Amino acid sequence: MARIVGIDLGTTNSVVAAVQAGNPVVIPTAEGGNLCPSIVAFAKGGEILVGQIAKRQAIINPENTVYSIKRFMGRRYDEVEAERQMVPYKVVPGPDGDARVSIPQTGKTYTPQEISALILQKLKRDAEAYLGEPVTQAVITVPAYFNDSQRQATKDAGQIAGLEVLRIINEPTAAALAYGLEKKTNETILVWDLGGGTYDVSILDVGEGVVEVRATNGDTHLGGDDWDQRLVQWIIEEFKKDQGIDLGRDRSALQRLREAAEKAKIELSNVMETEINLPFITADASGPKHLQLKLTRARFEQLTEDLLQRCVGPFERALADAKLKHQDLHEVILVGGATRMPMVQELVRRLTGGKEPHKGVNPDEVVAVGAGIQAAVLGGQMKDVLLLDVTPLSLGVETLGGVMTVLIPRNTTIPTRKTEIFSTAEDNQSAVDIKVYQGERPIAADNILLGQFRLEGIASGPRGQPQIEVTFDIDSNGILNVSARDKATGKEQRITITASTNLSKQEVERLVKDAERYAAEDRRRRELAEVRNQADTLIYQAEKALREMGDGVPLADRSRIEAQINDLRQAMSGEDLARIRQLTEVLQQMVSALAQQAYAGQAQSGGTPPRGGGGDTVEGEFREV
Amino acid sequence: MAQPDSPHGDEERATPMTLDKYETVLAEARGEADELRDKYHRAVAEAENARKWAERDIQARATESQRRLLRQLLEVIDNLERALTTPAEASGLRQGVDITLRQLLRVLAQAGVERIAVESGQPFDPSYHEAVAVHTGNVPQDTVVAVEQPGYLHDGVVLRPARVVVMRRQ
């Protein structure tokens, strides 16, 4: 079956996404990268270039290179006078007064639909190459303010490109879909979309799976590029003050400045201060000149304060049009690369009364992802997808030293099953207690005890020899079955825990946060438990070796080892990690020496050497093997 | 549960299971089993596909993050080259910078990075070149007249196009 894709056909860039194995993925372009510049060029050789490659030749072929075509989609020629002035290609009126593009290279005029179709064709080609199957249907997004004529034009563009457009959806709606917010009942959502060159703010009403745009506003000429431009100006001025040279007139320097400015902007989203280093930026009679500037986030925010303020008006107008107050907004979604800037996030938080916005890793891809999800729903791909639950917290058993040994880590998709083999901690131990815990702390007692049972009648044997198979099985209803079976006797015990997943979301969050908060202390306690377990194993081996070798051990050696064991036992009851480690090491050497002696004497006595090491096994009241 | 005084519940007697009925139930059960088997097979296949996708995805991400680093290193190379093109008499320092640059290029070559060969007089090709300035002249086709910043390939894929000045056909 052919796959249906979701397409964010943007003013500056376009993005394609599809649902793969139940998860939405953004499809990279043939040139690499997830964004395809929405640029089409008619090259002199007659070929049509789209995307990155069209962009690279733009300046030598400006009259045949079309960008921002979205601004002309479904518009009348007389509506777009301002836009016409801003592009280097020629826009002419069509027979019905519609805006068209005249391309000298081919001597033809093209409708914006045809130009957009060329972009869509490339996206379709790249998607087919990536997915390995034909793509014939799509969901395409448009701004919420697009009128019928603009929507129809977008649909037609798809058709020309050989794509059946199953649905045209609004960009903010797609963003809400990407965060799964369409399932909410009676909520009001703010979508704040600040892209490279456009700013849209929309207010959505969600209820019963229907998303409605309640109000929309924006600024079609405000975006991240303006922030870059402001930074470029600042760098030029600083350099002029410092060196008396105007870099604004040096084309080659300007190119480097633009890149450095964008990079600095991006860096300042993560750090409080950055450095702009452009060595050999220019030269004068005295020699080469280097540009070296420090820029703090505070200074950057100060430089661009007015741009940020321009975002406020449209937000307030949209709110007023929706007849709402900021308190009425339930959710906030950030879309567009420029919303990565902390100042934008701060502003949104402030304007919405401190609401924490939804923001993904890639705000530039959110709209395409939402369109991809809608495509999968329409294609029936989502129908059969079971909504699978995950375990909110890790599940495990307590092992020697009170350690939490996890069998099923948190966020594992259920149903799931996991089996591990454990053993006894004492010689001839006839029963083990299985204590089932839930939680993220490494010491079992800090977690929630879900249940416990005892497996009795274990075949007698030295510690570590019996094999006890413990199985955790969570069915699709979240019911946990824990069973323990002695492999030698086949004796089995089990427990069913029905309450393993019904913690509230807040409770789960608190438990996870606790685990983070106590991480350092917990690590130390766990380490202590492990070191004690190692020491315990070693003492066991040493005593066993002494017993088995009997008189074969010289008296002096025996008392030395016994004294060492005593010291170690004492240290184990304390908390001095380093001391336990050090004493363990010394005892280890003594045991090794003893083992060598035993080997040497083996020919005559026929005795077996004691097993050395054992530091890599985790021990339990029953232990892991 | 049936009441103790009527051991063969009335309802059961009212609708006795005929052979026909059993066959219908059996057919239904078989149909359901087939459907579930099919779903199960699909689920297993889906899991297998998801694993393959994840593998490919991880590979792609690793390559992309390597390329991001390589692109940043290219800027360091650019600056070393700029240092060497500034007019200065031959000195020990200059020679050292030159050797360092070559060392860096060798390291990158081992990682699969190669420079895009561009010479002036060559036709402009936007697959590998990015035009940053343009002159108009008497040339049969758009021609590269100068390389402003060299371009690089990584395993044959453009890591960064060569920035060139182009003479445009009149």
The global form of chain B is elongated
Low-confidence stretches of chain A: 605-620
How widely separated are the two ends of chain A? 48 Å
Tally of domains of chain B: 2
Write structural notes for this entry.
Chain A has 625 residues and is of the alpha+beta class. In chain A, a hairpin with a 3-residue loop joins strand 1 and strand 2 (13-20). The longest helix of chain A has 31 residues, at 519-549. The two termini of chain A are 48 Å apart. The model of chain A is unreliable at 605-620 (pLDDT under 50). Chain B has 170 residues and is an alpha+beta fold. Chain B has two domains: 1-111, no CATH class; 114-170, Nucleotide Exchange Factor Grpe, Chain A, domain 2 (Roll), CATH 2.30.22.10. Helix content of chain B is 54%, strand content 20%. Chain B contains three helices and six strands. Chain B has helices spanning 10-14, 19-85, 92-110; strands spanning 113-115, 129-137, 143-149, 152-154, 157-160, 162-169. In chain B, helix 2 (19-85) runs antiparallel to helix 3 (92-110).
Pick out its properties.
heterodimer, A: 625 residues, alpha+beta, 5-stranded antiparallel beta sheet, 16 helices, 28% strand, elongated, B: 170 residues, Nucleotide Exchange Factor Grpe, Chain A, domain 2, 2 domains, 3-stranded antiparallel beta sheet, 3-stranded mixed beta sheet, 6 strands, disordered N terminus
